[in-house]
């Protein structure tokens, strides 16, 4: 895709999907929240944080990033902004929205499901944690499915695989052309 953007010329690069600042903002936000596990805007205390499966959290967070990816974050025309200014605004919005998703939304769901399980199921802690983890994974997959319907995720994945297939064919053609 980047090669196609470069072939089209400098004017096309501005709208080329691979160099849109949104991608980089999403990647940096994912690294901050999922790998380094830090928050910038919202303090996550132990009171609003249940010890739960990371898999469910990753699924919900990546679904939120898919939602951010599919929509424009900046509600105004930012064609006059420099790429750096647009990147900074999109990064700040992406990080903030990711934190709201994780802390205000998902942590509350974790706490509510845990308290409901504690009040309705009388079992040992290990079994309760296992049930809680499986329930959260099921909820996160349901949320991911709803988001995928909104963002046409399957269509994106199909086009990504077609793009990878096209690159493979082009590299194979170039390799066979060198042999002749």
Automatic annotation (TrEMBL):
Cited Pfam families: DUF4818
Keywords: Membrane, Transmembrane, Transmembrane helix
Source species, domain of life: Eukaryota
InterPro entries in UniProt: DUF4818
Transmembrane regions listed in the UniProt entry: 23-42, 83-107, 127-147
Protein name per Swiss-Prot or TrEMBL: Uncharacterized protein LOC115483221
Organism in which the protein naturally occurs: Drosophila hydei
Primary gene name: LOC115483221
